C-alpha cells in the first residue's frame, strides 16, 4: 500500500487509465473491463484492475487539477511500477474548428501552473506526450475511423477564469483546448521515464459558450476509452 492507494503489490496493471472523476473510473471498469476488482477506496478515489481483450489494465480516479493528479501518478509509478499512464478526460475548446464531442490527443501541454517554473528556476520545460502511446492512439483511431484532432493544449489551474477572453492569447498560438491535468502528467512521466498520453473529449466551448449534455458526454466518452484501450499491446 502507498500513502493514498491501498492496493497490494502486483494489484495494479502496467497500463492505467486516469479519469479525473472516480465515479467515471467505476463506470469505465464496469462498462469495458472483464473481472474488474476494486483495489482502492481511500478518499473515495476509486481504482480497479480487470482485463480488456485478455490484457490486464487498471483505471484510477485522479481528482481535479495538477496537484491531485501528481499524487496518484507519483504513487502509481514509484510504488506500483506503472509504465503507461493515459488520462481520459474532458476539455473546453479554444478554437472554432474544435467542436463539441471532438476527441483531442494532447501532443503537448502548455500551462499556467507554476510547478515547472519552480523546478526549472524560471525556465520553461515543455511537457510532451510519450511518442509510443501517442502513435498507438493515433493509429488505432485511424484504423477504426474515429476522427481525432492533435496538438498543443492548455492545462490550467483556474477553471473559473476571471477574464472571459483570457483564453484568446492561447487560441492565437494554436492551442486547441483547456483542461487541468495533462501538463502535470507529462512532466512526472518525463521525470520517471514512463509513457503518458492525455486523450480528451470536448465538453464545452469557450468560443461559442456551448456545453454538451451528460448523455452526449457519455457517448463520446466511449470512443475516447476505446482509443485508450486500443493502445494496449
Ligand atoms: N474541462 C472541461 N472543460 C473545461 C474548461 N472549460 N476549463 C478547464 N477544464 C475543463
Please tell me about this protein's structure:
- The protein is α/β, with parallel strands linked by helices.
- The chain has a single domain, classed as 3-Layer(aba) Sandwich (Rossmann fold), CATH 3.40.50.
- 33% of the residues lie in helices and 27% in strands.
- The protein contains seven helices and nine strands, in the order βαβββαββααβαβαβα.
- α2 packs parallel to α6.
- The longest helix is centred in the C-terminal third of the chain and has 17 residues, at 214-230.
- The structure holds adenine.
- Residues 16-223 form the Nucleoside phosphorylase domain.
- This is Uridine phosphorylase.
- Keywords: Glycosyltransferase, Transferase.
- It catalyses: uridine + phosphate = alpha-D-ribose 1-phosphate + uracil.
Summary tags:
single chain, 233 residues, alpha/beta, Rossmann fold, five-stranded mixed barrel, 9 strands, 27% strand, binds adenine, Uridine phosphorylase, glycosyltransferase, transferase
Can you describe this structure in just a few lines?
With 233 residues, the protein is α/β, with parallel strands linked by helices. The protein has helices spanning 22-32, 66-80, 115-119, 131-143, 168-172, 182-191, 214-230; strands at 15-18, 34-40, 47-52, 55-60, 84-93, 103-111, 149-155, 177-179, 195-205.
